Amino acid sequence: MVLGEFVSCSRCGAIVSAGEGTCPGCGFPSGESGLVPGQSIGAASSPPSGYVGRTGAVPHSVPSGSVPRNGELKRVRGLGLATSWLLGVLAGLFTLQIPLQAWGYYLYQGLLDPDSDIYPSDVVPFEITEFVSFCLIVAVFLATAVVFLVWLFRVRANAERLGTVKQRRAKGWLIAGWIVPVVNFWFPKQIVTDIWHASHPDNRVSAGGEGAKRPVRGGGLLWAWWLLWWAHLLADRVSRIQEMAYTGPGQGVGSLDPLDVTRLYRDWTVSGMLLSPVSAAAAVLALVVVLRITTWQQQHRAHHDGRIGTVAFAGY
């Protein structure tokens, strides 16, 4: 028996009869799913491999998971792991600042105590260690920022391909949003939130093409990360306020006498002990956000890979 011409669905890859108005595998009308000619399948007396018919046809490898609307999802696992690893290192460096600043407080307070046996030369090892620690934090922070932005562009592209949630900001804001004054208070948070919602398993596109475009859980985690991030950024302002309390407006540390300089350095160690946990927590929460989005998009990609593979035919 000659069945006639066959075509392949550009949406799910299923092989169907040329006369089908819709794809039996994914249910999309031909105008939406894009039924296109297969690879010279032509006339056949038996269904070709991957054929999906309407009577008794069961496409085994078509899950009800995500169906990217604009092509295959990009790989994000490597970038996600690299970003998470760097954020973990950064969190560790911030955590180490707590005992380091406690050591500094002990030394500077000792210099202010006339009965103490601590001398200025005793502070040198601490200052060297603090300088090395500062350089490490700056280096790791810059590396993390670069890798994070690359990861952000990748997961944003995947979020657009998934098409389940509208992305409110243009791609240019993925970088500009962090540095442009005023809008940097909320644009990056909006960008990550939109990617989070688009990637969440509850917002997959079904095999029928319907996306669950509804709010998903996780807003508390995103808000906690964002507020801690801004608390981390404001930590530098705290140091500046402490300095101005001693020097007055428009003056530098060089205008202070040695005793006031020691007091200022002691106060800086106190703020360092208090604010380092905030910076470490911000890095940890960012790590969690990165891992979750990466995991969800990998799951979407796995569903999609299973969907566009060879569709087994059963019950013909």
From TrEMBL:
InterPro entries membership: DUF4328 (IPR025565)
Residue span(s) of domain DUF4328: 133-294
Keywords tagged on the record: Membrane, Transmembrane, Transmembrane helix
Residue ranges crossing the lipid bilayer per the database entry: 79-98, 131-153, 173-192, 268-291
Protein name: DUF4328 domain-containing protein
Organism from which the protein derives: Actinopolyspora mortivallis
